[in-house]
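User: two proteins, same treatment. go.

Assistant:
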Amino acid sequence: MPPKIRGMTANFTSPKAPLRRFTLMLSGEDALDELESRDSPHKGLPHERFLLGELLPLAPILLLGQANQVVNPNEVIACLQPIHLHATRDHLILMGQNQIDLTPEESAELLQAALPFIEEDFQGSVLFYNQHYWFIPAGPFSSLASYSVDQAHGRNIDWWMPRDTQEEGIAKRWRKLQNEIQMLWHIGPVNEERGQRGMPSINSIWISGIGKLNDVQAPALLKQSQRLIGSHPILAGLSKLLSLPHEIHLDDKNLVGAFAWLDQPQAAWPQLSAALHSKQLDEVVIIDFLLGKVRERIFTAKDLNKKSWAFWKKAEPLTWKEISQS
């Protein structure tokens, strides 16, 4: 090699290797002060808004994640869910889907009973259904402001009922359909059998997630990931939309470049901290939602021990509780 080329080669600095990063998102809750200071709820939980954008088209993403069918990106879709409303002395509380033990057979039977009412009012046919979710083109209900079961469960539903946005009377039209289905199910065989087993009745139907796929505004961090990890169907839908691999479980082979939203993040922390110590990972990014606002923190191997002025004491590792609550 000629000297000039040799010299240039000797002075050349190779680019740094990209950081081996793992991103873990935690679920967020509504900020209480925000709820008290607004005329209506902020649409969506903080992590839902982070993943999908302010328009929050949950229904088409959930449909895309669970159905093996093409979803029209310009069609406005609604999600319907059979639910239990628990009566207290002066208001009704929405119980979460994990509290009612609804079986696939019960869900299908409830849908078949309500289907004529649903398709008549929505002016369309159900696109797909499973145990927990029923999807239909939103039709005349397209402009309705609605709130997910995940956001409204455990709360007084008066505050979380769908609201008019562009056209007056749409919310009233929904409540009329809701009342018709409530009366139909009240006398139906599903609730009679559930009552005999001491199970909560399926006494209402909930609408949420109204929007279209073209409304999704996924964050750049998600688009730049190599894979999505977690069991929530939102992730399955986003993986299809963004053409990213999707995996349910965490293992040592799928950490680098991954974005995860896990049911039990505390169970994954020992594995993630071990990956930092072994230099399998350079960084673990934790995204949470302090008072409803996005917060991003970066942890490296040197950040895994508690900071102490007592330098002679043995360093103690940070616990997940200390990390998640700090």
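Protein 2:
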Amino acid sequence: MQVLRAVVDHGSVSAAAGALGYTPSAVSQQVAALERETGTALLERVGRGVRPTAAGLLLAGHAAVIERQVAEAGAALADLRAGRSGSLTVRYFATAGAALVAPAVAAFRRTHPGVRLDLGMTDPEDPLTKVLDGRADLAVVVRSDGAAHPGLRLVHLRDDPYRAVLPKGHRLAAKRVLDLAELADEPWVGAEPPGPCREVVRGACDAAGFGPSVAVDSADYATAQGFVAAGLGVALVPALGLAQRHPGVTVRRLRGPEPVRALHAAVREGAWGQPVLGALVSALRAAAQP
């Protein structure tokens, strides 16, 4: 169809051949083949040249539309490859959203204003499924063991150590660093929802030789601090979860062991290498620097 359009635009087979870099015979053969396919005459001779029939004009017009659409598609693809357009769906949990995702997104938008971002909370008990099945492009997740996951690329962002949160005036508040086992006989305020963060705390307590006795289960860092401040127990809260510290608590470091949750960006292996996704991962890594 593009050959037919060239003939129509230039008014002769020989002129179209010169413009396309073909021989006149090759141009005539392609037009003849198109006439056989369509079952109708597309050109008629006029003196030394040719002119299009009504069918020829119709197809030449469609050829122009197709050429324009192909050019537009190529430009759109170039923009996508260069990170000037597109969209990303990002999922995260609350503390990562405030501490990492928000500043990363602000930096990303300054360099990629044409990329649309769909931001939302992830399921704390199943944060990877949406990435694996393509409903999310990236999720910020906690991986306590650092193990690989089939089909995913995990990029380490930062480690987030847990702190002991005690009521003001607690008998252990005078110590700068606590052995985790020193909290074995204390009533506990559960600060984590079910999922990998709770597993980090449970695993550290197991390593210290005890299982915590949970008096109140809040599954929320701010609420847990309120219960601790009221004297109902002690809690373990990750450092990123203590950005808003309750005035009625004391926070101390831990050892023996120190529980640590490892924050990762999870991306499908098949999507790894896309420039716009790589730019967002880089922004997250920069935001995660202490």
